[in-house]
Amino acid sequence: MVMEFREKDLDLQNIISDEVNKYLKRDLGMMAATKRAPQQLIDKYEKMEVPEKGRDIYDIMNELDNEILEYIHRGNHPRSFSFIPGPGSRLSWLGDILTTANNIHASNFKNATLPISIERNLVNYFAGKLGFEIKPAGGVFVSGGSMANLTAVVTARDEKIATKEVYRAVVYISDQVHHSLSKAFHMAGIPKENVRRISVDAEFKMDLKALAETVKKDTEAGMKPILAVGTAGTTNTGAVDDINGMADICEANDLWLHIDGAYGLSHLLSTKGRDLFPGIERADSVSWDAHKLLFQTYSCAMVIVKEKQHLLNSFSEQAEYLDDIQSDDDVIDPEMIGMELTRPARAVKLWITLQVLGEEQYRARIDYGQRLAEYTAEIVEEMENWKIISRPSLSILSFKYIHPNLSEAENNKVLSNAAQRMAASGYAVTYTTELNRQKVIRMCTINPETTKEDIMGTLNRLDGFVKDEIEGL
């Protein structure tokens, strides 16, 4: 007896077509960059029960369009300047639709031969951009920078210290490093007290003298330094650590060098390319997010290592039920070099985008983002009582309002309130961060659809909100 299920009776073809058309026709610039859901809707969906009998699909779609997907932060909005925006290309979205619709299980070569061939090809392509030798280099697509960093940390741990000695392992990061590294160290069993936070210089780069001295001190104390993490494009300022200098220290002390380039390394495709990251070819591993400046939808990232064998050493396992589909040639299945067995074909959508746009278009888009950051700095410098705190670097800059008659605490409060008012207005997202204990506005201008008019409109509104706040003091 064949069961007849309700999905067959639904007009899914027309519903899907309608939703796709709505998406393609919408003008994000006319929508709110961020919109907070009212409490009544939060209560509605947190308390909603699963019905005994299914509801009308058009009622569900109405809730999705007008409620659930209305009250979100739109990272692909042309005036979403905080965090690191995710301006996903429609080409990437197309790839998402196709790979999801085909429900690809991209764990091994025999399940998804050509999607994995594409993944291997792109890993080799990006390894080449880093200056790694294609063989023995390797890598795997993962969900995001957090998983990429965790994969690299575990690999470094296994390469540099015996499991029974992990309590002696010491790792080194700057105080500008992404918070995902702290999680990675914890999950890898590195004691919290063995994580050394190295200070940064005036340009927010790791202080290499402090790093060398700390490594020396730990070694003399009987500890085992195993890993230093540099950043190629910090979240706060876009700063790039001195990779060559870090590599010298790591090589002299047998440390693994990991570079968190989740955001910044995509600038390897820009006009300046590897000149922005001298020494990147000396890293042992990198993390690299495609869902940031490679314009992919969430989630799509990579961890790339100089020697693929290290990933195999950490993640290769044999499961009897996989015997019939294990690769029998020189192809190494993704599930053997990363945490995931169940995994989507993340590389396909990036491949589509790269093939359609080509390097020339990528280069133009990334260069444009940096020029927008420089333009923003020029405008800010002309505004009364505004000061640049960190110069444009990899399309990121930070600045703040400093009224001469207000205290630092009052200026900070005025700036924070102005940023909240901006978000509440829906026009743009320009939240604050903290640098040297100062509240600053941080803007990341990587969306190729952002215009100079968007920049000017945002800065004018910020200035107006600040002045309104001062009048209310």
From TrEMBL:
Protein name (Swiss-Prot/TrEMBL): Glutamate or tyrosine decarboxylase
Report the sequence similarity comment from the record.
Belongs to the group II decarboxylase family.
GO BP terms: amino acid metabolic process; carboxylic acid metabolic process
Q: Which domain of life is it from?
A: Bacteria
* GO MF annotation terms: aromatic-L-amino-acid decarboxylase activity; pyridoxal phosphate binding
Q: Which Pfam families does the UniProt entry name for this protein?
A: Pyridoxal_deC (PF00282)
Give the species: Lacicoccus alkaliphilus DSM 16010
Residue positions where N6-(pyridoxal phosphate)lysine is found in the record: 292
What keywords are annotated for this sequence in UniProt?
Answer: Decarboxylase, Lyase, Pyridoxal phosphate
* Any Gene Ontology CC annotation: cytoplasm
Q: Which cofactor does it need?
A: pyridoxal 5'-phosphate
